[in-house]
Amino acid sequence: MNYEELLIQNKQEHLLDYIKYLDEKDQAKKETLIKQIENINYEQMNKLYATTLEMMNPEKALEAAFVEHLPFTNRAKLTKAEYKKIFAVGKEIITNNQLAIVTMAGGQGTRLGHNGPKGTFLLDVKPEPKYLFQIIVEDLLHAKEEYGVYLNWYIMTSNENNKMTTDFLEEHNYFGYPTDHVKIFVQGDLPLLDEQGKLIVNKDYEIKVASDGNGCIYKSMADEGIIDDMKAKGIEWVFVGSVDNALVKNVDPILIGLTKIEGNEIGSKSIAKAYPQERVGVFCKKNGHPAVIEYSEIPEEMTEEVDEDGELLYGEANIMNHVYTLNAIEKISKEELPYHSAHKKADMTMVDGTVIKATEPNAYKYEAFIFDGFKFFNNMTLVRGVRENEFAPVKNAEGKDSPATAVELYNNYWKL
């Protein structure tokens, strides 16, 4: 089926006007656009759009689920003997170089007002400013000093920022981390759809796409040869964290050790919610399997529920610190994760090149969530840490979870 038939069959005929326009203006751009059109999975996109309204009401979807408390271990309440035992198990995995670190770094710093990948954002910490990538490398170099090994570091970028990320790291000599222990791979992407389900064109006359969410990390690791590379290097455990947490602890023997001791294939770190209505995703069990439910999904009465000790039943906040056996990642990579819809602002280019700037949400972006991979397991290990020691997110330009709050947390933690 040629591109014209594809567009007509899938009600995307508006793109024929762009092709006709480019036929007279720019043959190279015309061919690029046609190639994109031919490679789109229309069955998938049509299905996603058809279910968009349902996906935009996650609380309704939760009504059909059986949700229950997921037990956790409070690191601060471990006895010295317990801590020593767990630490020894985790330390053995690390010193045997059986742990790999994966940093999710596919995002841009747009919300921060930063023109570039988020990992290249310069945080004004003491005694001198540091890039987010630099902070992660320093954490890995601390691990080298403590455990005597350079752990293998994998960085997941996106098609949007891969070249900029690679150029930046090369320019800064990977901040001193040996490049034979670093590997970069790229996550996938999906087209955006406008509110009528139509494909959008960007200023370069290409179909507008966006990264397909952190949940696609599993499939990307398989498709990009990362799982095979880890197997060849004898890696058995994988820590996955975000590039935008200035206090991320990539190498945590307690999390790894306890996950192994409890016989689980997946584990996560959490922090206690600051207050019941805090807008964070929380860990739970959904239909008998580990899960994270977003703040928008939780009915008001559930946010207030407490156990016999007065602890919130749904109070363990997700900070995107996950550990897996390599077998678990491979298992999830073979499964289909659901896509979630997000209503976003998207600039659109008209046929004549006029760019319509979005001032409010006008398009749908589709993402898979990393924690949707948890449902393929019966249980997981959950370790509660201390917020001030574990979580300094850099997400917003000002206010909560901004560079200013991250700098304060970072400086306080390191007593600078």
Question: Could you characterize the architecture of this molecule?
Answer:
The strands form 6 sheets. Strands 2-20-12-15-11-3-6-7 form an 8-stranded mixed beta sheet, sandwiched between helices. It is globular. Helices cover 35% and strands 20% of the residues. With 416 residues, it is α/β, with parallel strands linked by helices. A hairpin with a 6-residue loop joins β4 (122-123) and β5. It has a domain at 40-60 and 77-271 and 318-377: Spore Coat Polysaccharide Biosynthesis Protein SpsA, Chain A.
Quick description:
By secondary structure, the chain is α/β, with parallel strands linked by helices. It is 35% helix and 20% strand.
Rg, nearest Å = 22 Å
The main sheet orders its strands as: 2-20-12-15-11-3-6-7
Strand content: 15-25%
Global mean pLDDT? 94
**The CATH class of the domain at 40-60 and 77-271 and 318-377:** Alpha Beta
> CATH topology of the domain at 40-60 and 77-271 and 318-377, anyone?
Spore Coat Polysaccharide Biosynthesis Protein SpsA, Chain A
Largest sheet: 8 strands, mixed
Gross CATH architecture of the domain at 40-60 and 77-271 and 318-377: Alpha-Beta Complex
Annotation, overall tally of beta strands = 20
What shape does the CA trace take? Answer: globular
The percent range for helix content is 25-40%
Oligomeric category: single chain
Counting H and I runs of at least 4 residues, what is the number of helices?
A: 16
Question: From the helix content, strand content and strand pairing, which structural class follows?
Answer: alpha/beta
According to CATH, the homologous superfamily of the domain at 40-60 and 77-271 and 318-377 is: Spore Coat Polysaccharide Biosynthesis Protein SpsA, Chain A
> Roughly how many Å apart are the termini?
63 Å
